[in-house]
Amino acid sequence: MTEALLDVRDLKKYFSLGTGFDLKAVDGVSFTINKGETFGLVGESGCGKSTLGRTIIRLYDHTDGEVLFKGKNVHQLRGKEAGQFNRDAQMIFQDPQASLNPRMTVEDIIAEGLDIHHLNSGMRRERVAELLHLVGLHKDHAQRFPHEFSGGQRQRIGIARALAVEPEFIIADEPISALDVSIQAQVVNLLEDLQHDRGLTYLFIAHDLSMVKHISNRIGVMYLGKMVELASSYELYTRPLHPYTQALLSSVPVPDPTVKRERIVLQGDLPSPANKPSGCGFRTRCPLVQPRCAEEVPKWQEAQPGHWLACHLIES
Amino acid sequence: MIQHLLTIDNLRVNFKTYGGEVQAVRGVSFYVDKGETVAIVGESGCGKSVTAQAIMGLIPNPPGKIVGGKVVFEGAQISHLPKKELLGIRGTQIGMVFQDPMTALNPTMKVGTQIVEGFVRSHQVSREEARKRAIEMLSLVGIPDPEKRIDQYPHQFSGGMRQRVVIAIALACQPKLVIADEPTTALDVTIQAQILDLLKRLQEEQELSVVIITHDLGVVAEIAHRMVVMYAGMVVETGTVEDVFANPRHPYTWGLMRSLPRLDEGEKQRLIPIEGSPPDLFNPPVGCPFAARCDFAMEICEQQMPVTSEFGRGHQAACWLHDPRAPRIEELVAAGRQGI
Fold it and tell me: How far is B43 from chain A (nearest CA, A)?
């Protein structure tokens, strides 16, 4: 039995709109992440995937539900334990331009976590050099500023910063979307190597389905603040059950002109998360919608072993 | 001889900056025929957007300047035209779809007015006719309820809908050529699928010629007839989409295709990235710009610009490997294409 490192139970995050209404960005999401695995989270913009990541790592306070990290509720941690969680869980951000302080040298950026957690013990410079080497940069880069680096190199700095405090769990929020194709593969390989060498656990958030499928062991698909399907990446690709997952997979352009596919083109746009449809959130765009979908919220259930789903069509 | 609709001949564009002069486009040549879609593919900074801007006469001068070559549209040279004459072509003969629909529209103008702005100027039509035209265009690009929608403002539209409006603007004057600069990059996949379908349909219905600029090889395979692969301001490979995907001839194209994960890959394979990063265009290398990252680089690659080799049906690549004097070319090709 694999050990769950992170257990998210019915997590909710509402943002107050100040009008008496709440924006339900994350609305009752449950899943677990096992130690050493990569869990991919996909969905379109506005589906709540980034909010979910940020709520897990306590950048946002939760509204309801709980997040258990090694069995402890992270939103109730105080003092030393909270500090330890901040070390154990780290984040890599999407935009390597915006997530590095332009006025700090690379050394100060990477060592900031070391300073905060009192881990430098006189070896600060050596430790930074070691980390730079680990992510494929040179130790001479330590005294430079972020603007002197390319996008791919900056993302490597972000990764080095996350690794500095020796975390067990890393949330990577669209870590490669801002990078060019040929550089994306470099960063993904680096993340995979680090995972292999250090037994890291990843929550990999992205909208690029083919890259998520490549890197993840299991994938969760989100739509309007809810998880609609969760399965191993192979299962999800070969046998998607939810109509949204099917449409999402079929809309990815395949880089092969000889492949002619039957594409499910969804009509319309993602509804506003502030004004969600009743019942199933996907019903306004679903090609297989039934009257029941407007009345009842589909239950989150295990359709097959390890394959979770929220859809009325599959309920027996 | 059949005349191409658009010919770009040895185009060179420089930008003056504080750091020196950037050679953004360094001798780009390609053509577009009537009714075909040509994709320009490349990474950021390879000069693909600057090429598009040069066609439209949108290079800001200063700092930018077309320093060589020409753009020929329907037999007439349109680079270096005075602004007044350019206005007769821009928007009416050639339409443009921009990347970011959030910033391409004027937030203070009703979308209907924006759509027919160019049409009214070039056709001198009455108010009613213009309104009719705007409604027609909105329904053409698949926006429901067009009579109501033309009196709304851009902020009342979603991202995908805004991109449809931008396409309607580009098509309002029935141009012969549409240049789409990363038209789906800012959109979600399901919306991207809608917009690609729309572009394909319009292109077929209206016999449009389309130049689509993208970094996504998936989009290229989906929509284009021919493709132009750019690297460091130069064309490294060009040909029909079928030829280039089935039989890429330039190591950079091999690298691009290998570095992509496939949605239908079975066993998990390690990605093969292109190591290093593109050259600095302030001071571009004398030889092949890709030599520093190329697995097959030879001595000559760093010293001399490669000549372009032809492989039939317009499939060309600029690489020394295809020179008759190059060693063991078949073996190199076979080795290099492993894992594609």
Answer: 6
Amino acid B327: pLDDT: 65
Q: Which of B114, B139, B172 is the last residue of a domain?
A: B172
**Residue A295 placed within a domain:** yes
d(CA A4, CA A27): 22
- Does residue A67 form part of some domain? yes
Put simply, the answer to whether B263 touches A252 (Cβ < 8 Å) is: yes
Q: Do B188 and A214 touch (CB under 8 A)?
A: no
- Asked if pLDDT for residue A119 goes beyond 80, the answer is yes
Q: Is the pLDDT of residue B333 over 70?
A: no
B339: confidence class by pLDDT, cuts 50, 70, 90? very low
Model confidence at B338, pLDDT cuts 50, 70, 90, reads very low
A270 in a domain, yes or no?
yes
Cis peptide before B62 (omega within 30 of 0): yes
Nearest Cβ partner of A252 from B218, B241, B274? B218
In this prediction, what percent of chain B has a pLDDT beyond 90? 38
Enclosing domain of residue B110: 100-172
Count of domains forming chain B: 2
Contacts with A250 from chain B: Cβ below 8 Å: 193
Q: What is the pLDDT of residues B143-200, one digit of tens each?
A: 888 899 999 999 888 888 898 899 999 988 889 999 999 888 878 888 888 889 888 9
More confident residue, B268 or A253: A253
The answer to whether residue B145 neighbours chain A at the CB level (below 8 Å) is no
Range list of H helices, B78-205? 83-87, 101-104, 111-123, 127-140, 146-149, 159-171, 189-205
pLDDT at B212: 94
Of A8, A63, A3, nearest in space to A220 by CA: A8
The reply to whether B291 falls in a domain is: yes
**Does the beta-carbon distance from A185 to B161 stay under 8 Å?**
no
Choose the final residue of a domain: B149, B172, B195: B172
Mean of pLDDT values over A248-263:
83
How many other CB atoms are found less than 10 A from the CB of residue B106? 13
**What pLDDT is attached to residue B337?**
46
Sheet holding B20-32, edge to edge: B20-32, B6-17, B64-73, B76-77
Q: Is B160 near chain A, with CB under 8 Å? A: yes
- Whose tokens are 């800012």? That residue is B186
Does B215 reside within a domain?
no
Token pair for residue B40?
A: 């320009």
> Can you tell me the ipTM of this complex?
0.81
Residue B212 falls within a domain, yes or no?
Answer: no
- Give CA–CA dist A163/A194, Å, rounded: 9
User: Which chain B positions have a beta carbon within 8 Å of A237's beta carbon?
Assistant: 263-264
Number of domains in chain A: 1
Residues A183-209: what's their mean pLDDT? 90
Q: Cα(A175)–Cα(B198) distance, rounded to whole angstroms? A: 31
Supply B212's token pair: 């689509």
Domain holding A197, by residue range, is: 4-309
Q: Is residue B322 part of a domain?
A: yes
Pairing type for strands A218-223 and A38-42 reads parallel
Average pLDDT, chain A: 89
Q: Which residue out of B102, B222, B250 would a mutagenesis test of the A interface target, given it has the greatest number of A Cβ atoms within 10 Å? A: B222
- The predicted pLDDT at position B98 comes to 86
Q: What is the CATH number of the domain that holds A195?
A: 3.40.50.300
Average of per-residue pLDDT values in chain B: 87
Residue B221: its chain A contacts at CB < 8 A?
253-257, 259
Nearest CA distance, A266 vs chain B (angstrom): 6
> Mean of the pLDDT values across residues A179-197?
88
Q: Is residue A314 in a domain?
A: no
